[in-house]
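Loading example: each entry is read as two labelled lines plus one structure line.
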Amino acid sequence: MTDPHQAMLDKICAHARETAILESAQQLLEWDERTYLPPEAGEYRAEQVAYLAGLIHQRHTDPRLGDWLAELAESPLAADPHSEAGCTIRQMRREYEKKTKLPESLVKELTRLSVRGQQVWVLARKNNDFAAFAPILTQTVSLKRQEADALGYEDCRYDALLDFYEPDEKTATIRRVLAALRDDLAPLVQAIADSGRTAPVSILERIYPVAAQEALGKEAAARIGFEFPRGRLDVTHHPFCTSLGPHDTRITTRYDERFFPSGFFSILHEAGHGVYDQGLPSEQFGLPPGRYVSLGIHESQSRMWENMVGRSRVFWEFLFPAAKQAFPDALDGVPLDQFYFAVNDVRPSLIRVEADEATYNLHIIIRFELEQDLLDDNLSVSDLPGAWSDKYRQYLGIEPPHDADGVLQDVHWSAGLMGYFPTYSLGNLYAAQLFRQADADLGGLEKKFARGEFLLLREWLRDKIHAHGQRYAAGELVERITGKPLDHKPLTDYLRDKLTPLYELA
Amino acid sequence: MTDPHQAMLDKICAHARETAILESAQQLLEWDERTYLPPEAGEYRAEQVAYLAGLIHQRHTDPRLGDWLAELAESPLAADPHSEAGCTIRQMRREYEKKTKLPESLVKELTRLSVRGQQVWVLARKNNDFAAFAPILTQTVSLKRQEADALGYEDCRYDALLDFYEPDEKTATIRRVLAALRDDLAPLVQAIADSGRTAPVSILERIYPVAAQEALGKEAAARIGFEFPRGRLDVTHHPFCTSLGPHDTRITTRYDERFFPSGFFSILHEAGHGVYDQGLPSEQFGLPPGRYVSLGIHESQSRMWENMVGRSRVFWEFLFPAAKQAFPDALDGVPLDQFYFAVNDVRPSLIRVEADEATYNLHIIIRFELEQDLLDDNLSVSDLPGAWSDKYRQYLGIEPPHDADGVLQDVHWSAGLMGYFPTYSLGNLYAAQLFRQADADLGGLEKKFARGEFLLLREWLRDKIHAHGQRYAAGELVERITGKPLDHKPLTDYLRDKLTPLYELA
C-alpha cells in the first residue's frame, strides 16, 4: 500500500515536472531570442513568451496545489527540512504562497510597467535624459512598495523584495556585511589610485582574432569542468547562462577583437554558472532539490571561476603558453607577469559592468543603498541623480559627467528589479569565503592550478554545493561548509593579498 | 451589435492562434534538436516535444471547438468556401473531424510504434537486416489499415492516408498521372543510359571550402527572394525548412567540401520552401488562410527553384562568375557548359535522396505502387524486398545489391508515413505545370533569369499561390492558375527539352 502522503507528493512532483517542461520551452524561446532570432521575428516571439508565461503562472497558482502542499507541510514527509521530500514541500509551498499572495491586478501592472519601463529607459539613456525616465521610476518604486506590502515582511520592505533573489536572506545582514566591505575597499581602491602604478592594459587591446578567442575560451571552459556534451557556447550581446534541460546548459559570450578580456572572462564567468547548473542533481530537474539555491550562490560560482581562478597568476602559468600559441602576434614577447598584471587592472570607473573585481562591489553598494532609500521614501526620484554622484565621489573618488553613464546605466530598475543588486556582491563574498575553505580542504590549490588541475575544485563544489540543490538556504549552506556566517573578511583578504604586490602597496 | 456567428468565429480563431503558439514552440524545440542541441540533451528534448504534442492534441480535439465549428458550418459565414471565413471554417472543421475520428488508443499505439519503428529501422538498415524490421513493418501496415478504416474513405484505403498530406487529392488521379509519367520517363532514362554520354561530375568533386559554399548559397537564396531579415540558414544532417512564426522561417543545409551540389541545391530547395512560407499571409499565421495547401504544393515551390530555376543554363549564366570567384581553384578553367552539364547529371541510381530530377520520380513511383499493394494486402511484407528489386530492374534497369540500399533506405514507413511519398512527385509535376504557366504569363523567363531577375517569378508565385493559403485545394488551385488539371506532360516536356541536347538524344 502506498502512503497517501507519498502519493500526494508524487502527484505534486509530476505536476512540477510538467511545469518545468513549459518553463524550459520558454527558456529556449528566450535563449533563441538572444542568439539566433531573425531581426523581424521579435514581435511574435514576445507573444510566444507571454503566452507560455501565462500558462506557467496558472500552473504555479493552481489552488489544488496549494491544498496539497498545505496538507503535506503537516505530514511526516516534511519533518526533515533537508531531506528530499522536506525540501520539495518547503520550497514549493514557499513559491506557491509567494505567487498567490500577489493580487493578479498588481502582477499584471508590474509586468506592463516592466516592459514599458525598459522601452522608456533605452531612450532615456540614449538621450541622456533622466527627466524622461523619472516618472516611470516613480511609478515603479510605488508598485514595488505595494508588492512588498502584499508579500509581507518583518523588518523592512526591502526584505520582501530581496527574497525573490536571495531567499531567507535579511537586508540587515547584507547591510552590515556590505558596510564593512565598503569600509575596507574604499581605502584600498584609494591606495591603488595613489600608487602611481597602472596595469599594462594596452597588451589586451591588440588584435585578438575571434576564432582563436573562441577556441581558447572553449578550452578554458572545458578545463574548469564545463561539460560540452551537455552544453553549448554561443554568441550574444549580453552574456548569460541558461539551462534548457538536465543535460542542456548553454553559455554565451561576446567577442571584442580589440579587447581580449571581454570575451574570455565572460566565458569563464558563464562557464562557472554552467558548471553549477550541470552539477545540480539531474534526476531532480525542475524540483527544488534540483534547483539552484539563490542568485548569490549562483554568482559565487561564476565569480570564483572568473576571478579567484581565472585572474590568478597560477591559472595563467598554466594557460599562457596556449594563449601565446593562439595569439602569436598580440602576445609576442609579452612576459607572463605583464599579462597577469594587465588582467588585474584595478581603477575606479563609472560603469558597473566594466568594473574590476575590487571596485565592482562599490558600484553594488551604491545601488543597494540608493534603492533602500527609494523604497523607504528617504530619497525622492528627483534627488536620485545627485545622490548617485555624491556616493560615487565618496566611495570611488569619481563622478559621472552625465546621467547616461551614471544613474541611467543599468536596466534593472526599469525592469522592476529592486533587491537584485546585492546578490552580485553576495556572489563575490560567498566566492571568497568558499574558495578559502576549498583551498584549506584540498591542501592548497595553487600548485595544482599551475599544472592545469582544476577539476578537483569542481568536484569539491559539486559535493559541497551543487549536489544539494535547495536543501539548505544560501546562508545556512555557506555556514555549514565554512563553519562561519557570511563575512566580508575573506574577500578583503583575498583582494589585499593579490593587489598589494601588484600595486606595490604598503 | 456583433453578429453572434462572427463572435463565435473570433473565439475559434483566438483559440487557434493560441494553439499555433504552442505548435511554434514545439517546432522551435524540433529545429533546435536538429541544429544545436547538445549530444546528451536528446532524451529530455523528447519529453518536452511529447508533452507539448499532448497539450496541442487536447486543444485540437476540444469538444467545444467541434460544437462551434458544426454550428458555423451551417452559417452564412461558411457560404463562400474560398472566403477567409469560409476557408477557416471548412479547414478547421476538416482537421477537427479527422483528429476526433481516431480513437485515442489507436493514436497512442501509432505514436508508440512510430518511435519504436524508427529505432528498429536504424539498426536494421545499419545491419542490412530486413528480417529484423519486417515484424514492425507488418504491425505498422496493420495499424495504418485500422487508421484508414477509422477515418473512412470512398474508393480505397490509400485515399484516407493520402489525405493527411495532400488533402482532397485522390489515389486514382495520382495513379493515372504517375503511370503516364513512368511510361514517358523509363524510356527517356534508358535512352540517356544508352547515349554513352556522361556528365563531367568530377568538376563538382573538387575542393569547395565550406565558408565559400555558405556565402554563395546565401547569395543565391537571397536572389530568389528568401528574406533573411525574416529567416535564417543553419547546418543540419537532413536539410529541412520550418517556420516558427509569421516572420521567422528557417532553412537548413549540410555541406560536403568534396561535393558542391549537396549543400548548394539543398539551400535552393529549402529556400524555395521558405519563400512559400514567407509568402503566406502573415496576419493569418496559424489559421487556414495563412497555412500551406498541401505537401505537393509545398514541394512544387522547392523543386521549381532548385531544378527548373537552379539547374537551368540561364541561372548559371548569371551565377557562374560569382561561383568562379568563390571557388577560384575548383572552377579554374571550367567552361560554363561543362559546369551546367555536371549539375544535370542523370543516371539510374539506387538511393532516392541522391537521385537526379529525372530518375527521382521513378523512385517515388516504385514506393507509391508498393505501399498501395501492402495496404491492399496484394503484397506481404516478406515479399517486399523481392518486389522492390523487380521494380527497380523494370523501371530503372538496376537492382540493389542488398536491402540497406534498397527497401531499407527510407525512414518513412518505419515512422508510419504511408501515403506520403507521392507528394514528392506531385511537387515535381505541379512545379513543371506552374512553371510553364509562369513563363507564359511573364513573357519568357530565360532572358530575365540570365540577368539575375528572379523576383518576378517569386511575385507571380506569391500572387497566384502563396497569398491564398488554404483557400483552394491543391488540385483546384493549379487548375485555376493553369486552366488544366494535374498533367504529366509539362514535366516530361521539360525534362525532354533539357536532357535531349545535353545527352544528344534523337
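The radius of gyration of chain B is 23 Å.
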